[in-house]
Amino acid sequence: MADTTATSARTLEQIDHSVSESLSAIHALDAQVQQESPDNAAIRDGIARLVNCMEGLRSVSCPADLRLPMRLVEEFVDADRSPDDFTVAMRKLVEAVEAGGRAKSDALASLAAQVEAAGADAASSSSGADR
């Protein structure tokens, strides 16, 4: 497990480095393009640097056991639907489950308050009967 964690940490560092390099290349390219007299050779080199950075970012991988839910594969990938559609569907499902959980939690809190109130009433009426 420690080896996987170390590998994941290295992978995250690689991703962070690749993203930083890509952003740096984009900013440098943007600055070159914004110049009053842009240097075409420098722009070409900047584009090549950006492409190399993006290739490096694409090649970073993690040896994780990642599996797609069959529902995603069957309903979206096999049906030529967008993964964004899957994301929207999952968000709606999560929101519905969250709303249901919140309603149950609220109902239990209300029940607990009623039980406490009934217990307090019973305690006060039994102490009044003891007098």
UniProtKB/TrEMBL annotation:
It comes from the Eukaryota. It is found in: Nucleus. Its main location: nucleus. Keywords: Activator, Nucleus, Transcription, Transcription regulation. InterPro entries: Mediator_Med10. One of its GO terms (cellular component) is mediator complex. Pfam families: Med10. Component of the Mediator complex. Component of the Mediator complex, a coactivator involved in the regulated transcription of nearly all RNA polymerase II-dependent genes. Mediator functions as a bridge to convey information from gene-specific regulatory proteins to the basal RNA polymerase II transcription machinery. Mediator is recruited to promoters by direct interactions with regulatory proteins and serves as a scaffold for the assembly of a functional preinitiation complex with RNA polymerase II and the general transcription factors. This is Mediator of RNA polymerase II transcription subunit 10. It comes from Emiliania huxleyi (strain CCMP1516).
